[in-house]
Automatic annotation (TrEMBL):
Membrane topology: Multi-pass membrane protein
Protein name (Swiss-Prot/TrEMBL): Type I secretion system permease/ATPase
Localisation: Cell membrane
Protein origin, superkingdom: Bacteria
Gene Ontology annotations of biological process type: protein secretion by the type I secretion system
Amino acid sequence: MQRRGQPQRVRHNPVLGDALAACRGHLIHAALFSALLNLLYLAPSLFMLQVYDRVVPTRGAVTLAMLTLIFLAAVATLGLLDLLRTRLLIRASARLDRLLAPALIGTLLQAPNAQGQGGVLLREFDTLRQTITGLGMIALFDAPWSPIYMLVCFLLHPALGAMAVGCSAVLLLLTFLNERGTKALVQDASVAQQHGYQRVDASLAAAGVVRALGMQAGLVRLHLRDRQLAQALQMRAAFVGARYLTLSRTVRIAMQSLALGLGALLAIEQRISGGTIFAASLLIARALAPIEGITAAWRNMIQARAAYGALLALFETGWPVRGQTRLPEVRGDVAVERLSVADPEETRLVLHAIDLRIAAGEMVGVIGPSGAGKSTLVRALVGAQPAAAGAVRIDGATLADWPEEQLAAAIGYVPQEPTLFHGTIKQNIARFRTAEGSGAAALDAEVIRAARQCGAHDFILRLPQAYDTRLGWNGAGLSVGQAQRIALARALFGRPRVLVLDEPNASLDAEGEAQLSAALAEQKRAGVTIIVVAHRTGILAASDRLVVLRDGRLEMFDTREAVVRRLSGSRAIADEAAGAEGRA
């Protein structure tokens, strides 16, 4: 994912582009309202000009009353248009959230390199949305009208117009210096803040371990250092930005007052009327206001641009687009073709050119020492980790060829850690699917069937609210063994045709392992393809073949009896060699 501190170029992406295009209508109408607003902003200047030039010399009370009514109507219309413009921008922000948030969250859940980035990227998205409705966007809409105000100043007198142009040039120079002085600082501060958020999220996810090992004080110091670094960078950017913002305000106030002085001088020389003095001051102030607004909002604009770049980088991760054509129902043939998988940082290969052919209905065990790549292999089999090379095929079609919902319904997966979610036990087993009417009854029946099959039904009924018991984050409220049984029930939900289990018996007692073995035997009789990673190999007694991995490479793939015989022979040779060495 692209960091904020890196140079960015303007690129486009269909997901972001379509969402922003859908908000284009709101922004166009907001720009039209801005045009009307800026025309009405001329009303105070015209009112003052007419009062001083027509009403005061002629003592025309009736004229004053009519001018006042017209002025109040213009101001009321101005206020209404300003409200409508603000509401349009707010609705544009809400629409952008409605259109883009599902794609953003979905991409975060799919993209393997976005792990730990979710909260940060959602904050980036909110920064982009808030900038759309902020003062910076309004200043951008008003900016094209600054030359028009300057033109009106020229119509009043060329000297007034020249002064307006000179003031604008000074403010634009300050805006440029502000951008040059704060851009790198804001980006560095944002990167530091991102890192701090990620580390805090990781520590909170392991809060129990932190307390148990007495790591709290050390981690607090670490996170405080992260915050202090980010805060120091933010303060530097804020100080630089405040300096230029203060200069901009000072220049604007000084120029507005000097405009009064210039107008008075021109009036003394009888080149303009008395009312033009005050009208010119208001017009110059109005011409400079958008430039000052852009300067004030420049930091937010930099952050919004960086947020756009970060979101663009996420949507361009290259995650394969799923096929949309519904394929024939899954039989369960699994083929692994020259599969290589890299680590999350893509610095080295964890699996090297694995080739496997598993027939529908086979039960295959995956064994090997720790770090051999067993969990990486099964994660790649279910699409949880992308391939660096090669492919995984189910019934001849790659994982990307299958519509996501069809493939997910055909696969049952138990990860090495149960990975339960905040919600009820029923929701976790049902994979958070919902149904209404008769479908709700069928859903409940399927949840209970899956729980019965892995032996989880009885202990669930003993919980305070049975299947409606609400779990905390990461399944808090259950023991590790209970959580693993819920994960098994979730894998069996929907009668999948391929079961991929990563150490499903790691936290089960003898009774639970017996129930798991019975469940797997039942699945095997039903013709389900079963792939099981196990260190405790008792559960692999019914397996047809075994895969042996070592250092990310396929060492053996043969019948269970042949693999056991070869492994036993290797151990005997090793023991004999060790004994001979000892005797020597």
